Amino acid sequence: MDLRNLPIGVFDSGVGGLTVAREIFRNLPNEKIIYYGDTARVPYGNKSRETIIRYSRQITQFLLSKNVKAIVIACNTATSLAIDAVKEMTDLPVIGVIEPGARAAVSATASGRIGIIGTSATVTSGLYEKCIRDLLPDARVFSKACPLFVHLVEEGMIDDSVTVEMIHRYLDDMIESDRIDTLILGCTHYPLLRSVIAREIGGTYADYPVSDLDADVDGDRNESRDADADGDGSRDPNGGGKAAAGTGAGKIQLVNPAYTTAMELARLLAERGMATDIPAAPSDHQFYSSDSPDSFRSFASRILGLQIDKVSLKILD
Ligand code: DGL
Description:
alpha/beta
């Protein structure tokens, strides 16, 4: 069998990692994925290192049994605590979201003052900070756990007054006292809040235009209009969203590790001669969840912007 035509295993604690799957679909349209969302055991963000490593190992074992050619840990929390444990299990390429996110932040920052937001486990692990300092030893790094964002996104409360209130409670200090110029959205769910965060804190997109699918988990397609500010039907550089239009000068650069992870995957597959040139059909992708396939399917269809026909229940113990 030609190794290049094998799928890529992607996993997350739940549905949030679909933001990474989405970037893989957009930027590596030939690649097939097998996605595992551990929806029965989400959130990982408040669990112990031991538990997160155990869950990540179980999922990796499952993906390896499906004959994947690479593993993408789409979850920031699982990457923070379990990437070394996963790498020990296989010689295949293993990519997490933290290093690509840190690299993007280091190239985006002018002042070296970088903010990181994520789950409690991600922030406590200090891995983003370490990766940033490896690249930019003089960086000033400010971290903040924003646990409620995950729940707000899962409730579809994207542009909601409660969400706006929480954005200010979590981020105002970083903006005003810490004077960061770059902010890593270090949790799978946060890219879905990106245009609201950008509007509220005066942000722009460091790495990628807001897409026609961003933040549309409430299904109202508002982001689609925002993304295409000039109405030409294309994605607008630098967002085109409410606060993100313009050059972005003086604004906080928002880094989406989901995008930079897909770019890193593309680079690695090309470097190792593992990229396929046969286009993937939507039905080539496989989805597994450890709880209700139906709710996974409807969330996935909205985030990915394609009809997911089949999600299989797979419980790992
Ligand atoms: N996927 C997790 C992350 O990126 C967020 C949800 C959770 O806490 O499991 O950190």
